[in-house]
Amino acid sequence: MRALGVVRAAIVACDRCPRLRTYCLRIAREKRAAFKNETYWGKPVPGFGDPAARIVLVGLAPAAHGANRTGRNFTGDGNGGSGDFLMTALYANGLANQPFSRRADDGLELKNAWIMAAVRCAPPDNKPTPREIANCHVHLRAEIDALPNARVYVALGRVAFDACWRLIAERHRARLSAEGLWPKKRPAFEHAGVYRLPGAPTIVASYHPSRQNTHTGRLTPAMLKTVFRSAQKNAQ
Hints:
Uracil-DNA Glycosylase, subunit E
């Protein structure tokens, strides 16, 4: 098991996906008008939170002018963005000390929670390719390995769910298959679904807190709050 600092350094230095690195650097150079005087992070984004966390949140990827700018997941995407929506739910469940996420130095602290993404670089149109997702899996695996108390993976969206399920399969399929306990068919992603296998971390699934989902009512604050209550129950 590698220390979190070593894992973080490997993530930040990663150049496995030329398309994503080119895009992130271009966005960091051109900037959005509202942030023209800021220095963009522009590098792959490592996770953050409580190193003793039992609950690990896995999102899709950094936003071009959010985490790609601030260097912290779900941070800086504006009022009403996915960061504030997510932190409000975490705060309501005692997993964060404040209900907003605006800057990397805004005082946010997570309690019993760690946040990372399935893909560490902002992708064009928020759509990483299957190869880019696969390239980044090594970082998901390494970062979770450096969190010794992780018991529950909260998968924010289908891509995150697939990444979490792949990790469970890598670690537990052989054993559970030998015991006749591995499912014959992979379970389908569904919001608020809870996926438990003996001796493996539990996956709790949620729609991603993107504006597309939160502004249309597909994902409401009450729905996300319920997801974290379920995660806390399964993390005990």
